[in-house]
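okkk here we go again. third time trying to get the S-adenosylmethionine bound version out, last two times i messed up the smiles copy paste (missing a bracket lol). double checked this time i swear
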Amino acid sequence: MTTAKSPLHIEEIARPTHDELARQHFVSSLRKQVMIDMAGQLKNLYTRKIEPNLRIKLKRPILRSRDIRRAMLEEPFFKSWSALRYAAQEMTWWSVQPQVERNLPELILAAKRIARSKGPGSLRLNSKLPIPKDVTRMDIHLMPGCFHTEHEADDVAAGAVYWHGTSVFSAGLKLRHKNGGVARSIAEYLKIAHPDFKPQRMLDIGCSAGNQLHPYLDVFKKCEGYGVDVAAPLLRFAHARSRNMKYNIHYSQQNAEKLDYPDNHFDLVVSSFFLHEQSALTNRNILAEAHRLLRPGGVMVHMELPPSSECDPYYDFYLDWDAYYNNEPHYAGFRKLDFAKECYMAGFAKKEFFSRRIPNYGTVSNEEFSESARGERPAPQHGNWASWFIFGAFKT
Ligand SMILES: C[S@@+](CC[C@H](N)C(=O)[O-])C[C@H]1O[C@@H](n2cnc3c(N)ncnc32)[C@H](O)[C@@H]1O
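finally!!
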């Protein structure tokens, strides 16, 4: 219960009305229907009809996802599935916008009050920072205004929409496990696979609303967190949330290609769902910057969808959906990169590169997770959020 002494946390301010909540439940269920039930039917259609026909037509095995895409574009079921998925994606943001708009003055006041309050962590904004074209030129994930747009002074709307929207996005799929998710899984993996590695200072690049930083600090209790992003409204929201919850995290508005921290400053540099939104050239700069910032013995870990080289042609085709319909134009090209080569070009020694799947910490038993982290059993196949694909390198 909230009293005068315990002000609302920022994510509790913009509450939905009864009807808005009902709409959000509908959108979450629709996403589940599209991403699990209908996606299964699409795969069946491919296996039973499209693949055999395509083999006859091509007179060779199907090795390229673009052959599958071409055939799928002729299929009414694929078109309906894709249109529904697109609609569900748009509705995700629309379903939370009214509650954010209605409560925006209060959200802004709360973020300002928390930023002025004493507490751990800090917020550094730079209103002169040029926002990269890859962020401004289209609404990534179909989120209106993308991450960076500000409608008024001290705006936090994009942060609140992103925070509440991702909750609707994942609710039907049960992705928000109390003790699971990407960051928790990576942190637990590092702890088991590298028991001597105890980071004191870590950086999350493209940290958005701070979704992923808290779980790292829950696992590495003595670690100080840093988060960078180019979008001020997300950072204001992230900072208010973290300070409210007493996490020691320093947020700052910077471009991950060129950061203002000194060399060898961090033990751990991470990102999640981030690199695929960048061009190949930008990614080279970001990886080189991560190398500069890590101290010898430190490690960089990125979570992404698995590269094309790790997928069968159908799954490769399936994962490319976002590149065509979700305003993530670099996605398909990114998944074709050779990550080992990219890390090497950024300065990491070849032998220090790693890539692997790790189980989602929230969905497997502790025993299964530990065995998998120690390399004694394989992680579950990628798909339906059973496991995460990570790659990275230690700095020598
Ligand atoms: C998909 S979101 C990342 C999501 C977040 N890491 C998570 O796991 O929930 C991508 C974020 O990267 C930020 N971004 C894009 N380009 C950037 C850059 N060059 N430097 C820093 N942040 C950037 C965007 O503003 C956005 O918040």
